[in-house]
Write a structure and sequence with these properties.
Blueprint lengths: L6 E5 L4 H12 L3 E6 L2 H13 L3 E6 L5 H15 L4 E4 L16 H29 L3 E7 L12 H19 L5 E7 L6 H9 L1 H13 L9 H12 L9 E5 L7
Parallel strand pairs: 1-2, 1-4, 2-3, 4-5, 5-6, 6-7
Length: 257
């Protein structure tokens, strides 16, 4: 098992992608601690993991609340002994489909505010323990707009770039302490709840949009959540011990490095 005896904290662990990564971590032996603002979806993922023979706990902890996150992380470190993996998978509540020059200031800034505040809070909470240990991995998630310009992506594109920039700078600071900081850049997964809701609301339009995204890739398809989760496992494992300050490209060949 690649993550045996590792303690992994996942914010937004009740979401479709956060849950997929949590299940993959647990399958590889990690003890998973799920955090979010709503218990029901968190507990569902935790129950699935326990039924499969893994170890998981769920707790209410808002990634935007510094006091709550510090209490949550310190509690885990106290009882589990370490914080080995931290992954922020919360929604950034972005608005898309509107030209930047017509978008309201609040709609544009919201994803930037959510991502940067939550990244700083969750990463700082984990980093303090990882520095003491001399080890650990902080993982984040972005999307294709971090590598290629997409019209009508609103504040989401700049947010993806901001997360990757933050991740690189944090890696430079934590590298000498033995802590790695890595990012995943996804093209979006058609089996995620975000895509399913989009298809359910505007079936014809959504299918057309997804087809356009698929055609932009070299593989002519989008990555499934299982593929994203597999890369996540690799990145936080010792197999990727030489990787930090970088983003793994899981865009099926949309954005080139």
């Amino acid at each position: 098992m690649l993550l045996k005896n590792k303690n992994a904290v996942i914010y937004g662990g009740g979401g479709s992608l956060g849950g997929a990564v949590a299940r993959a971590f647990a399958q590889e032996g990690a003890r998973v601690f799920l955090a979010g603002r709503t218990m029901a979806p968190l507990e569902k993922v935790a129950t699935d993991i326990r039924k499969a023979g893994g170890v998981a706990e769920a707790a209410i902890a808002d990634a935007m609340d510094e006091t709550a996150v510090n209490k949550f992380v310190n509690g885990i470190a106290g009882k589990a002994g370490s914080i080995d993996i931290s992954f922020n998978a919360i929604s950034v509540e972005d608005v898309q489909g509107i030209p930047l020059y017509e978008m309201g200031v609040e709609d544009f800034l919201r994803p930037l505010h959510i991502s940067m505040r939550s990244q700083l809070i969750t990463c700082s909470a984990a980093a303090k323990h990882m520095i003491q240990q001399g080890s650990g991995v902080i993982l984040s998630l972005t999307a294709t707009p971090a590598g290629i310009a997409y019209p009508l992506s609103g504040g989401f594109g700049p947010t993806c770039s901001a997360i990757e920039g933050f991740s690189r700078n944090l890696a430079a600071e934590l590298g000498p302490k033995g802590v790695r900081v890595v990012c995943m850049r996804s093209a979006g997964s058609p089996d995620s709840e975000v895509f399913k809701k989009m298809i359910g609301n505007e079936r014809a339009l959504a299918k057309s949009a997804i087809k356009e995204l698929e055609n932009d890739t070299m593989l002519k398809r989008l990555p499934m959540m299982k593929e994203i989760a597999s890369v996540a496992v690799f990145l936080v494992s010792d197999m990727a011990s030489g990787m930090t300050g970088t983003s793994a490209n899981i865009t099926c060949g949309t954005a080139m490095d």
